[in-house]
Each structure stands twice: as structure tokens, then as C-alpha cells.
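ingest -> validate -> predict -> emit
validate: passed (alphabet ok, no gaps, 271 aa)
predict: started
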Amino acid sequence: MVSQRTGYIEVGAEKLHCISIGTGPKVLVCFHGYRNNATLFTPFAAYLEKAYTIVSVDLPHHGKSNWTDHSHMHPRDLVMLIDEIRSRYSVDKVSLLGYSLGGRVCLKAVELMPERIDKVLLIASDGLVFNPFYYFVTRTGVGRHIFSSFLTNPNRFVGVIEWAKRRNLIDASRYRFFMQYLDSDQERMLLLRIWPSMSRLIPNTKKLKDAIHKFEIPVSIYMGKHDRIIPVGLAQQFTKDMKTVKLFILDRGHRVFDAETIPKMAECLLS
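emit:
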């Protein structure tokens, strides 16, 4: 069994919990998806622990991280986090691994500090293209009010949601998104904390692509052909005319990685 070491990294007034695995000379910083935690990437250790020291971070309001309600994780916090990891392990550059929401965090890190990034592995990544819906409900006054009202008193909105669906004003995926939160107070409150807290980490697509191109950063993206949460078309749009970005489409849904696919993904970080 691969041994794990745990600890905390201070990011301003907050503390992010992380686990580290392996003793390799390179450092791989990992960010999990929504409602996951830092242990998500443990299966990668069997393939990477000799080449990398894996540092997997619990994002705000996940796992064992301590994060204040209504507090945002800002770009400066992300830079501070990665620089602290670089300092602890005495490396100039780190590689990044992100799944879903964690992929968006990786992309923002590449945009902010491309000179400190070696390789990037993204799995079913969010943030590949601008999401106007997410921006509206987390970054605008009207959107935040609607979002908060829906999550604190969702039954008021059922009729409106059904009406909008019948008239094709919202697509099937948005409809499913709204309806899945009607029956669980716990799920709604979790979403109300997590989405706003991560809303400052939205990549600027042009700056991000320019950074990848300028620093020739190798980026490998794995997407599920049947993913209904983050459609593969978003990755195809992102990778167009990007020479150092490779896209792999697997016969999977949103949970792309498993015992069969993990070895192939890990190889992208070893080659």
C-alpha cells in the first residue's frame, strides 16, 4: 500500500488540507472535482510515485480543508498555494493534474504562472471554454440573487423551471441541474458554498492559450464521449490550433478514469 502524508497549507486566512504521496524528484499538484476530495488521485500513485511527489489538495469546502463561508479563492490564493508547494519541495516547476472543477483550477494556474508549469493532465475538465451560466449566477448581482433564492427556497421556482423547459428556454442539462437539487437541503447548501467560493478562478481563454503557446506547455486532455456534464465538444473547441495540446476521447461518461484508463493517463506525465 502506498503511504500518504497529510498536512495543511495556509492561504491567506484560510487553510487547505493536502495529502502527499511518493518520493519522486518532480512534483505533481492535483485538484479534484466537485464533491470529491484529495484521495481521488490515490490510484495514480502506483504509476507515478517514483517519478513524482504527488501533492493532492482538498479544495475549499471539500475534504478536511478549512475555508470560511462566503470567502472566495482568488487568483492570488492559487499562486500562493502553488508557490508554497514549490518552496516546500524545492522545485522550480510543478506539473498539474485536475479533474472536472479541478481542471478549471489547473487552467487558471497555467494562465497565471505558465513559467512555473511543466506538464498538465486534464480529465473531463471544466473551464475549457467560458461558461456564461456559471458567470451569471456567481459573478453578477442579479444572478447571485436568483441563485441564492433558488437554493434556499427552490419550490418557488419549480413552475418557472418547468415552463422554461417546455418552451426550450433552458436545455435538458440545465433542467436536470436545477431539478436534482429540489429534494436535498444538504446538497443545495453545499452548492451555495462551493460555486461562489470558486467563482474567481475562471480562466481567460485567450490569455490561457497564449500562455500555453508561448511556453510550449504540454497539455493532455482526456474526455468521455458520453459525458453529459462537460461535453467533449468543449474540449474539441479548446484544442483547435493548439500544437502542444492533445485530446483523447474515451468511451466513458464524466467519470473518465478507472483501472483501465489510469495507466494511459499517467503515461502522459512520464513521457
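The longest strand covers residues 4-11.
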